[in-house]
Specification:
There is one protein chain. The protein has a seven-stranded mixed beta sheet, with no helix packed on it. A six-stranded parallel beta sheet has the order 11-12-13-14-15-19, sandwiched between helices. 35% of the residues lie in helices and 18% in strands. Helix 4 packs across helix 5 (167-183). 51% of the residues are buried. With 541 residues, the protein is an alpha/beta fold. The chain is globular. The protein has two domains: 84-291 and 398-526, Metal-dependent hydrolases (TIM Barrel); 293-394, no CATH class. InterPro entries: Amidohydro_3, Metal-dep_hydrolase_composite, Metal_Hydrolase, Metallo-dep_Hydrolases_sf. Pfam families: Amidohydro_3 (PF07969). Keywords: Signal.
Length: 541
Amino acid sequence: MSVSSFFRIVAVATAAALASGCATGPVYDIAITGGTLYDGSGAPPRAASVAVRDGRIARVAAPDTRLRARRHIDATGLAVAPGFIDPHSHVPESVPEMPGPMRDVQDLSQGVTTIMASPDGELSVRQMGMLRDELARRGSGPNYGCYVGHNGIRREVMPGEHRTATPEELAAMEAQVRAGMEMGCVGLSTGLMYDPGMYADEAEVQALARQVLPFHGSYDSHVRDPGAHLLESDREVVRLGRATGVPVKIAHLKAVGLANRGRIGDVIAMVEAAQAEGVSVVADQYPYDGATLRYARELLLGPDGKVPGADALAAMLADPDRRAALRDATEQGVDGGFAWIKAVGGYGSMRIVDAPDAPDLIDRNLQLLAEDWGVPPFEALVRLVTRHRDVRLTLGSIDEADIRELIVRPWVMIASDGFYVDDTVRALGKAHPRSWGSFTRVLGHYSRDLHLFPLEEAIRKMTSLPADHLGFADRGRIAEGKAADIVLFDPATVAARADYLHPSRPSAGIDTVLVNGVVVYEDGAATGATPGRFVRRQQPE
């Protein structure tokens, strides 16, 4: 604990002790006083005190109200807001690799108190049940919810099959979706760009989505082909919402690559036209200009569908026929299967973010670089792999103007699409700054610095908007009776410090974070407390 923090706590505790002789009423666990309240609804901020008892917000009082509490937190100069909800996170999937509880400082240090597991269709009901049991045993700092993952259940019902489902297989998957909803999942998620979801037709996906209707669930989709067929892929989500009546969300919405620059406006127009018709459609967005990261060498695929090692690659490149086979697999996948080049819409979607021995290559688009070099894009990729060390690329370059045009829409919530970042992930070159900075980047850069929207709107995008869509009726707002997930931060200094070269630097300006009424983050570190729990979708009243 810093010296200043120590004296602040002592001073506040002393004042509280003196005041308690005059105060009447119940004794709370925690009283937060002196701050500016942003209640999560998007309403203008106001001065208020917040009292917490038994994991709930017990009272929201006038700022001069004397509150008796076992602990007083002085929030002078700070914003007091609901804990942020990350509707698209891959962090829980890494629990088996985590040492001990899921303290998850990368989320807590941004003010995130609830994270959603199994986006992109990742986990089956069985896998999610195992993860939930493991987290219950180990403990967790943040809360966590989950989707039923289409890819996960498809792998279990149709192992190794690259085709549409039979009626019997579809019925088995439908039963799994219902089982997941009974377990407390919020809805169905799909990853239609990935194997095996890419082999499902619209009829299969719509049939599975209909199973969440009796549970008032929702549908979340990593769309089918956002690189080469952006608008049509997003339109497929809207069609599902229109056909089934299920509320839908387009996951990590963006326009990637040279071919899609400026086209986010077409997507926005399509979504808002559907909303005008009564279709419930929203989206989430991470505030960075690049999607997933990979070393350049990982993009190369041999005819066996695997990334070749250095010796095998040299042998392939030395033989014209094998070189051609390497190019075909890299660009088209093996037997039409998954390949990054194809999935993201070609080389024009890729931008270099790190080149340790050639920093002049940073920010170069791979397609444009190939044109400058006078070689086909595949040969430019080979040159990066064979002549340079540890070149990393984003596999979905996004134009900053498109980010800004989308992020201001009132139906767009903030998400990280983050992964648990440890030494192994860093060594693999996959650590992305969005894992450590998405929420604070919006608060600091897009709201405060660029003035794209006021702070209360930024907070709404992270709190009540995702809570309402996910069905978390007791979270996302600071109001009496709600769960005491609360973040205190300094509006003047809050900022993301993570970038592509330093992807796991913690954010600035986050002061204190509570989950279910327990302090889990303060003085720049996780406290070690694990009050997080599995959050079920709640039925509307």
